[in-house]
Each structure stands twice: as C-alpha cells, then as structure tokens.
Design brief:
Elements lengths: L1 E2 L4 H15 L4 E17 L4 E7 L6 E9 L4 E11 L20 E12 L4 E7 L62 H4 L19 E7 L6 E10 L21 E17 L2 E12 L3 E3 L21 E3 L7 E12 L4 E11 L8 E15 L2 E13 L7 E13 L4 E13 L4 E3 L11 E3 L5 E13 L3
Antiparallel strand pairs: 1-6, 2-3, 2-4, 2-22, 4-5, 5-6, 6-7, 7-8, 8-9, 9-10, 10-11, 10-12, 11-14, 12-13, 14-15, 15-16, 16-17, 17-18, 18-19, 19-22, 20-21
Length: 468
Amino acid sequence: MERLNLNKVKLMAAAATLAMFAGSASAGVDVHGQLNRMVSFTNDGHQSNALFLDNDFSPSMFGMSANYAVDKCTAMGGVLDITTSPNNSRLISQIRNADIGYNFAYVRRADVWVSYGKLGRLSVGYGDAASYGITRMSYSNTGETVSSAQISNLAGGMLFHPKNGNVSGLPANGADGTVDGGMPGNLPTIAQAFNSLDGIGSIFDNTDLYRQKNRVRWDSCEWCGFMLSVSHGSVQPYYLAGRNGQDQDMTPFRHWSTTRTFTDAALRYEGNWCDFMFSGAVAWAQISHDWYNGFQSEAIARPAGADVPNNTDVWTNSATADRRLRLWAGSVAAEHKCTGINVAASYGNLRKMASSLNNTKTWFVQVGKHNCWMPYGQTDLVVDYTYGKDTLINQDKSKSFGVGVVQHVDKANSQVYATYRYHKYDLPGAATLVAQGNTNTFGNNTVTEFDTINVISVGVLFKFGAML
C-alpha cells in the first residue's frame, strides 16, 4: 500500500476510471468497506500490555468497484480500495503503542482490468501479485480474524525479550545508543521471526504497508476447477520496512528507499467430491536483488553495502546479496460438508539472496469445525500450529500455536471473535543477529535465549456493502 498523498496521479486516475463506469447505465457499481477492531493483551515474559488495535488479518478499509459489459465477450472494470488502519496490530510493539505516522489512509488497490471470453482477465495497476495468498487455502472462515498461515498479523510488531537480559540495556542504532528518540532496537519481532512465505507481498515486507504491487497480471479462465495466474512488477517503498522492529520515517528524502522487480506464477484448484470440498494452490516466484537509493537529507544508519555520502543519488546493491530470492510455496485444504470439520496445511521454501544462508522453510497446519450453536449465525472453532526454520539466521527455529472462536452475526454482517496465541523463537546457542542481505537488519548483539510471547485478543469485524 502507499500513503494517499504520495501518489495522487495514480489515485486520481483510478477514481476517474471508476467514476466513468459509475456514470454508465450498464455498469455495476459496488461501494464496500469494513472495520476490524480488537483489544489485545500481550505478555513477553517481562511486561504485560493492553493495546487497542486494528486487526491486520483483514484491516479496516473502504473502497469502490465497477464493471462494464462492452459486448457479449468483453468486460472492463476497476477497483479502488483505501485502507485506514490506526494502531495496526502488525506494527505496534511494547515500545511503540501508538503508530504516529500511520494514522493515514493508504491505497490498497488501484487496479483496472479487462476480460475477453476464454482468454481470461488482464489486470494493470496496483494490486495483488499472482502468488499472494498462496499459503492460505482454508475452509475455516477464520482467516480475517484469528487464524491463517500469516500468524504474525495478530501481533507482528511485538519484540522478543532476551530471557536473561533487559531490553533497555541492549545497545541500539544511532550515535546516542537509541532508536527513534530512546526506543531500544536490535531485537527480532514476531513478524520477522515468523515468515509465512505467502507469496509476493508477504516475503518482501515486515509491515502491511507494501503488500500490493505495481504489476501487470493475467488470470486464466477456470478449467475443470484449475486457474493459472502470472504477474510481473516492481515496488519502490520509501523506507526499509521492519528495520530493527521499528518504523522508519516515511518522508521521501529522509531515509533509504529500496526497489525490487519480481516475476511469479500460481496454479490454483477448487472442486467437490461427494461430501467433501477440496482446494489447493502452488506458486513459484523470483525476486531481484535489493537496491538502496542513497539520496537523503541527514546522516542516519545505512543498510549494509550502501555506504555512500549524504545528499547523493547513487544506487548500490546490498553487499551480502549474491543471487536472487526464489520461492516455492503451496497449500491444500478440505472440508467435510456434513460435519463441518475442515483441515488445511501449507509449506514454503525461500532461497535467500545471500548464498551463505540456509533456505527459510515454514510449515502450517490448521483444524477447524463449523457449529450451529447460536441463532445469530455460524460458530467457527479453529486450532493451528506453525513451525519455521532458518528464518533470520541458520538453524534458528520459530514455533507458534493458536486457538480461536468466531461467532458470525449474519443480520449485522459482522463477526465477534476471540483468540489466544503462543509464540516461541529459538536460537542455535549463543547467536549473533546481524544484517542478512534480506529484509531483516539487527545490531551485533549476542543473545542466548528469548522469552515466549503470549497474546489474547477479542474483537469485532463489521462489513458493509459488497465486499470483494
């Protein structure tokens, strides 16, 4: 996503396109939106926090879509979605409980598409890449609130606390030993330690700010339950997302910016067999090296390999990167229609840019049950477990399990939910966290062991209009 005032031309073009469709008698126009607010209680082994958050499993947003039938074979359409997510659950941490600088509206999608008969749909604009969401096949109906392969959406900004250390006592970036006016850094967050490898838009960022991409995408028509998608594009955020678990100033000429190009493809399937529903997906993606733009107005810490003078416009590649990122990932899901029992599983394997680093591997399993206990709507129960390896450094391990309940209120188009989640990050003995040539940057701190992070959340998701 992009901050609203950073690309007015793109926003105005998408709005004009939708307005053109809306003015036609033959157009179908939908206005849609949602609010997804929750209260989270967290404990990192040393302190507890009560936080009022926007749930990043499906953040608050509003938008408009339109489509126009040109003739019997051809249709055109567009969608403009704006996300406004104050105190986003993926960004807030123990040391930052108000996301000053993020209480803005951001473009989530600004996309125009055309479809022609059996040739499928061609999309151009700012939206999902072909592989995004590839590890989230599920029939649990809990992916917007409490459970999906992207478990870090619930509390991604929370910092892991050294078991035998003190957060405030650790060194941090900056000449005065602090980050952002006294906040300690150099600790991994849940979002960094738990990478869902959910396709392009997931493996690039540790925040919700750049999930969508500037890309061209083609989706085939459905054939015997199968659909093929391919996309190519790039992203140029204004800051290095997730640096030390802190938010970076998004002023364009203050901090470093990065750029990447990508190509990806995904094959999806959905079908029925007797009393069962099945779905599956597999994706491949390749991403170019990082490049850091050296133009800045003041001296700050630079990414590894980007040591150039201030006030210059020089592009330089990350020093530790000697190859491209490459991803293979997929997921499967099934539901027994009669009992409402559903299961899902996913796996991802990411080759990092630095050849000295092992591939990141992640597994996710989920079991759910639909129940008709209340007159208001369906009650969904879910339990899941995720395991990751070699995410930040070689031989590290991340483990998490969660349980949740979602009560649907059909007449109000709402969901009331509650969840508990446990997070554990393990290092191979006394490990030093250093710059990885990927998206994670830490100081040279030797850490023996981290405490677990426990999160309890309760919230409400309210939708209006025709949600896409």
